[in-house]
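Discussion board: Methods & Data

I've been asked by a reviewer to show the raw model output for two of the constructs in my manuscript, not just the figures. I'm not sure how much to include, so I'm pasting the format here to get opinions. Each protein appears as its amino acid sequence followed by a line of discrete structure tokens. Is this the kind of thing reviewers expect to see in a supplement, or should I convert it first? Here is construct A:
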Amino acid sequence: MFEMIWIKLGILLTGFLYAGLLPYTIRKGIRHVDIDLEKFTLSFLSNKELYGKRYRRAYKRLLFAMALINYGFFWLLSVFYDLGEFTGYMRYMDYSFASLALLAFVPHNIHPLSFRHFGQSLLRVIHNLLAVLVFLTIPTLIIAFQAAILADQPILGISGMVIVGMVILLTLASIIARGLNGLAEIVFINGIGLWGIFVTIMTFIH
């Protein structure tokens, strides 16, 4: 009984951090920099040549913190809903943590892809691949969670699946309309945050 209370409190804390930390920090950060989100992605904020070491450090710390919070939130959900037997869910929990954590330590750069700048070119390619992995693994992890609880928690399972489905569709629509840019990333981040708040509240009142 007391263990479940502590788990619920942990979900409440990590859930609201998961939903609010990244959107709040991004809103606060872009107020102080000149960045066109219709042309550039949020990864540009980690570019030392454009925004200096301060923003690169902040970007690294924020993404690594999000990787830890993401893992903690979904791990607590797995304990609360007893999802240890769902190997796909547990595997994608590891994947999402790894992709976010690695992305934190591979900053963006604008060096042209060439063998003359092989090191920087390689880092740029790795950064882009990791960013794509983040976009893929987090929705997949959420869908795996929703599918895992569907039989025992049909209301939460179906409603959560609808929310994440809408987030994916809105993000894709934004990418199709304007390309992959900071605005599309904000749609994705805010949508995932909304899903996180919904699941946190539904779990807490369970």
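Construct B, same format:
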Amino acid sequence: MKDELTRLREKLELYRFTEDASWEEGAAVSATLVETQQADENSSVGWTQLKFKFEIEMNPQTMSEGEWLQMRVQRMLPLRGWDFGDSQNIFELGLTNACDENKGCYIGQEVVERVRSRGGRPNRHLGEIQFESEIEAIEELRVETEKVGSLTKSVVRASSGYHALSWIERRFCQIGTKVRAETSNQFGVIKNLLMGPKRPPSEKS
């Protein structure tokens, strides 16, 4: 969607050096952020290369709202306003490599660098949970009596039961962990987790 593309560009310009980004718009929208060159064999590349491209299909496959929701949940594609907002950071959304360590000052840098110095391990992760019975959006999740997270607005009924995206505390992020939706009192199992690439703790720490 065009408004989401605009927000994506704004975020990339916030977290990366804009002079190394090129944008092309037309039948397809693409962006490339160029990797810095090594001065010698002992030098390390400061930035990672990032490329993406959105192509407009000439004969796009139509999809109902329900099919779109089911596809998003199964592929772990969170939607702004439904599953995340400005309170989520890049590590929680699995976008660790989208933020340059050498970017300089920007809004939220202190939090990002604090998490990065600890190996890029956020306090929570996005997960897909499968329930056998109907559940409600935004229910709190518990393991026994302890609160471990909450569902987002993305809840869909499928042939295998009810599936929902959820935010789960890191220490409970294990495939197969059983959770209980507090309001509907239904039990579910963590089926999938959105985990960013593992990074070693920063030497600066």
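Answer (T.O., handling editor elsewhere):
This is acceptable in a supplement if you add a one-line summary per construct. For B, something like: The beta strands are 21-24, 28-33, 50-55, 124-131, 140-143, 146-158, 161-169, 178-181, 186-194.
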